[in-house]
Amino acid sequence: MKIENIKYNEKKSIFDIKIEDEKYMISYELYDKLNLTKDMEVSEELFKEILSENNYQIAKKIAENYINYKARTEYETRRKIQNKIIDKNVEDRVIDYYKKLNLLDDYRYAKDYIEYLLNIKNSSISYVKFKLNSKGIKSNIYNPLIEIIDKDIEFKNIKILYEKKYKNKKVSDYTEKQKIFRYFAGKGFKFDDINRVLGEFND
Question: Is the pLDDT of residue 71 over 90?
Answer without folding.
Answer: yes
